[in-house]
Amino acid sequence: MFSSTVIAQIIPDPTLPNNSQVTNQGSTSNISGGTRAGNNLFHSFEKFSLPTGGTAYFNNDLNIENIISRVTGSSIFNIDGLLKANGTANLFVINPRGIIFGSNARLDIGGSFVGSTANSINFPDGSRFSATNPEIKSLLSINVPMGLQYGSNPGAIQVEGKGHNLTIPIPLFSPVLGAGTSINSLQVASGKTLALIGGEVSLRGGILTAPGGRIELGSVNDGVVILNPTGWTLGYQNVQDFQDIKLSQQALVDASGFGGSSIQLVANQISLEDGSLALIQNQGTQSSKSMVFNALNSIQLSGTSPNGEISSGFLNETLAGDLDDIIVSAKNLLIKNGATIYSKTFSNANGSNIILNVPDSIQVSGFSSINPGIASGIGNYTFSLGKARDIIINTGIFLGLDGATVLSGTFGSGKGGNLTINANQKVELSGFNPFIYLASTQLAVGAFNTGDAGILTVNAPEVVLRNGSNINSYTLASGNSGSVVINAEKSINITRESSNTLVYDQPFGISSTAAFTSKPIQELLGLSPFVNGNSGSVTINTKRLNLREGTLINVSNFGSGDAGNLNINAEYISLDNSIVAAATESGKGGNIFLNSNVLQLSNNSSINATARELGFPSDISSNSTRRNLNDAGNININTIIFIASKKN
C-alpha cells in the first residue's frame, strides 16, 4: 500500500479551541495538543495518512480516558503503520470518507478502539463532535460518547492482510491451533473492544484480534448507532438501512482468550469465504459471551482455506470455561462448499447453543471442492465431560443437499445436545457426497463414546427425503442414541430417485440405531469394537406417510443393547418396496405401533420385528431366529383399511 520512503501526512485542522499539533521525528509523528474536556481529549485533522513502518503517537496524559479524533478533509483515513497512545485510553476515530487499514497496520493502545465512518460522535448533553460540519471553537463535551451519527452512503472500511495461518491437526476432532495469537493483526489489549462501524466493511485477508474482549463489525447506511460504554457494546435499533460485511482470503475475526469474549456482526448481508472465520476459543475458566450475526437480508458462508483445512464460518469452542450462544438472524442463510457453523467443547465446560432464526430459508449444501471430506454443516459437539448443548433452527424452508450434515454429537462422556428444526413450510433433504462412502445428507444426533445423544425433533408441514438422505439418531458405542420425533402436519415422503450404487448400498430414511462401524473409524474415534448402547424411539405424526423404492423407517440395535419403539400415527400409510422395522441382535427388540385409517403395502414391502437382522420378509411378521435371547418386539396395527399387493 505504501512505499517505505513515503512520509506520513498527518495534518491538523484549525477547528478546535486548542488545535492538535504534529511533530515528525523520523518515521514517528508525535501528536500532542488537542482540546481537553474532562477526561476526554479531542483531536481534529484535515488529513491522516500513515505509511508502512510509520508511527502515529498520540502523546496523551495518563489520566485521559477517551481520545476522540476526527478527519474533516476529503481524504480517506489510510493506515499501514502503528497507531499508539499512552495509558489505558480508548481511541475513537471518525472519517466519513472511509478508513483503510493496510496489511502492516497495528494498534498499541491500552484501551478499546472504535473506527467509524460516521458523520459525528454524539454525547448525552446533546452536543456533537462532527467531521462534516466542524463548529470552530465549539464547546466540547466532558461526557462519555453515546452514539455515532451516520449520513447516507457513509464511507467504507477496509482491512487488508495476508490471511490467517490457523490449523486443525485432525479436522473436527482437534481444537484450532493459533487462536488468539495472530502476529499480523489489528489487535487491542486483553479484554478490550475492537469496533469497526462504517458503510461497507470488508476484510480481505485482514485479521482482527481482541483477546478475551469484544469485536464488533457494523455496516450501516443511515441512522444512529448507540454506544454503550460498558464494554463498548453497540446498539442498532435506530438504524433502518444497512450495507454489507464481507470477509475473504482467510480473513479472521478472533476474540479468543481467557473468557469474556464476544463477537457481533450486523449488516444487510454478511458473507464469509475462502476459509474466513469468526472465532472464539475460550482458553480460561471464565465463561465467554455470545457470538451474534445479524443480517437484514442474508448470510452466506462458502468454502474453505486453500489447503482445505479451515472452513469458512462461525466457530465457538472451549478448552476450559463455558460458552455462550451462537445466534444467527437473517432472512436467508446459505452454507455451502464446506462452510460450517460449529460449537465444540474439549473440557468439562458446556458448549454453546446454536440458534438460527431465519424466517425465509436455510440451505446447507455440499462439501469442500478442495477437500471433499469436509461437508458443509451445522454441528454441536462435545469431546469430553461437557455438554454439547442444543441446535435450534427456526425457518420457513430448510434444505439439506449433496452430503451436507446437521449433527449434534457426543464424542466423550458429556451429553449430546438436542437438535430441533421448526420450519413453517418444508424440510427437504436430498443427495449425498459421492466422494465419501455412506456420506448422505443428514439430520442427526449421535453418540460416539459413553455420553448419550440428545433428541432430534422436526416440526414442519411437509418433510421430504430423497436420493440417499437420512434423519437419524445413532450410537456407535456405549452411549445411548436419542429419540427421533417428526411432526409433519401434511405429509412425509421418502424416495430413492437415484441409480448410483453408493445410494443403493445403504438403506436410508428415518431411524434410530445402534450399529458397528468400520475399524478405521473405530481407531479414529477411539471406540471399542463392542456396541452396547441402547437405540432410541422413533415417533412420527403426519397425515400422509409415503415410502418408495427401498426406503425404510426403523429402530434397530445390532449391538448388545435394546432397540427403541417405533410409533407411527398417520391417516394414510403407503409402502412401495420399502420397510418399517424393529430389529435387534441380542437385546430387547423394539415394538411397532401403527395407527392409520389406510395402510397399503406393495412390491415386497414389509412391516417386521425381528431379533436378528433387517430384511425384506413377505408381509407382516414378528419373529425370533435365535434362542436364549430376548424376544423380538411386538407389532400393533390399528387400521380401518389394509391393502397388500405383490409386485406385478
From TrEMBL:
Domain Filamentous haemagglutinin FhaB/tRNA nuclease CdiA-like TPS: 13-124
The organism's place on the tree of life at top rank: Bacteria
Pfam families: TPS
Descriptive protein name: Filamentous hemagglutinin N-terminal domain-containing protein
